[in-house]
Each structure stands twice: as C-alpha cells, then as structure tokens.
What does this fold into?
Amino acid sequence: MASSIESPDTPVNSIADICRRSAVGKLLPDALYVHRSAIPLLEPALRSRHQKAQSLVDDSLPLTLIKFSLTKPQLSYLLYPDFDTHPHPALHSSINVDLDAQKVSIRDYSQSVNPFILHRKETFISPDYPQYEKFQHLTQQEEALGLLERPTTIGTLKGWQQRLDQYGWVLENHAVVCPLKT
It folds into this structure.
C-alpha cells in the first residue's frame, strides 16, 4: 500500500485525503498551501507530486508557496517575494502545472493594481520557522480586532486596505497599531 501512496500518479481523491490530514500547511476547500520550507515535512505522495511538477518547470524560478489542488491533478508554485518582510505580501507570479497534460502556464501579477495578498502566514509554515511567532502574533492581533472577519473581502490589496481604513488601523512591520490623530 505504501508504494501506491508514494506514486506521483496517486489519484486526486487520495491526494485530497492526504492534503486534508497534512500536519503542515493551510488547508482551504479546494487546495492545500505549503511554504517551501515545509516540503520535507509533507507526506511522500505530496513530495512526489511536487517533484513531478518541478521536473516540468525551470527549477531556477523562485517559489514561496506550493498550492496542491484537492480537485485536479495539478499544483501551482506561487511567488510572494516579500513573504518574510511584509505582513501581507502580494502575489508576484504563479506557475500552474497540469500533471496529466504535462503543461505549464505562468501568470504575472507584478503589475497588478490590486494583487492577491496573504493572511495568516504562520499557517503555511512549521512552528520552527524563524518568523513563526511574529506571524502568529500578527494574526492573533488581527483576529482580536475583527480584521479577519469575512475573509472573502480581504484577499486583495484594495480589499484589505479598505478593511484597515474601516477600522482605523495601520500596520507597522508585523503589528497592528492605531495611528495618532492630529
């Protein structure tokens, strides 16, 4: 049985089950998102799927997160260049790999006026990641202040800025602060 789990050709429904029980990463209804630093912590079938996809792309391309689809035999490599330094980094580019068709498509978001952004960064990494506590503290602040409610409205830079403006908060480094009124 172990050999079928480790195959890159593991059926999508099995991959979905493996993703759902992953000890690392951020699970959403359609995908598991994992930071590159956590690849060694993934189950063998996910590492194998990543290796198969990586063989189809230029391995010199930078990546921050890997998105494992729960519904299709594909994964994506997402680049967030400011992952460690920006509290809510913007998506720069994505590389989508269709494992069945062995096709690769690249999307560039670097010029977008309203790029997708990340929240809850500690969920993508393992607890031993150097920035884990800082990321977790920011999420706890944002939750306590109600900033992360209705997440469908805050997934882009403009949506997030509207939320901050609505509540009257600003971010400094990885902390929520109340600006001084003059």
Summary: The CA atoms of residues 39 and 171 lie 30 Å apart. Residues 1-8 have pLDDT under 50 and may be disordered. Residues 2-108 form one domain.
